Amino acid sequence: MNITNYQLRYCCLAVLTLVIIGMTGNARAASVSGGALILSLDRDALIAGVIQDTYPDTPRASFPICCRPSLYLEEFYAASAADKTFFQLRDENTPDLYDSVSDEISAVGLQFQVNGSHVAANPAGRKNQATTFSFDPANLSGSATGAIGLGGAMRYRVDVTPPANRVLLGDMTLEYDPTLVDVATGRSGWVLMNHLGFRISGFDLFDVDTQLTGDTLSLSGGLGLGAGFDHLGGIRDYRVGTFSLQTTVVPVPGAVWLFASGLLGLGLAGKRKRRLIDFWRTA
User: Fold this and answer.
1) Crossing angle of helices 2-25/255-282, nearest 10°?
2) Rounded Cα distance, 151 and 173, in Å
3) Residue 176's beta-bridge partner residues?
4) CB of 55 within 8 A of CB of 66?
5) pLDDT digits (tens, 9 = 90+) for 30-85
6) First and final CA of the chain: distance in angstroms?
């Protein structure tokens, strides 16, 4: 019976040891918290990258409003507008459908807040995303999984027949997909995915520079039009601006494997105690 008990104890200790080894092997895993992604769109490049241009560029008697860009930013909603519905984003502060260029706002320095691991319940039509990103700091591109949720939304005006001339892009996530890497074009595999209305790539990211200094992760590079602009006549991967992301690296908590380590210590202590008892019994 004593032999069976010892065998059982050794088996349990072996399992705990394997658990600890497995968990400590992932101890370098990390996620991110806080910070923001900044988008800056080049107005002229954005116009050149979208070929939809329905209305005349010179005034006519039947259509006196002229010279509108093929695509421009009309409204920006920061992360604080997460409680607005899809229809509020689309319709609020909307000027006359036959608007002029005066309705255009700057698309430089647009700030999208990095979401936490939990987000509030989304109002109708919204799909604000929680951050589920994890990676090994020693091998970011080779281990990145999940997504970085980004709070904020944009409304663009397209030079096509109203009311289809308002386009939303937002509730985005920053994700990495190694199958998208293209060394020849500089496509990095990083992509900004749109979730407003439907999931589709908003911007592909190019020539990305990655810096991991201390507990700060920084990414920066160029923006190219993604598949989400195809239906607007967008030229796929046409460079339209730049981006930068800065966020804090947070190690995955090690409390679980430390607890397992404590159990192993208790097991070893129990083993030593048992040996002492058996010694005095046989003495």
Assistant:
1) 160
2) 9
3) 190
4) yes
5) 999 999 999 999 999 998 898 876 666 666 676 665 667 788 899 999 999 999 99
6) 19
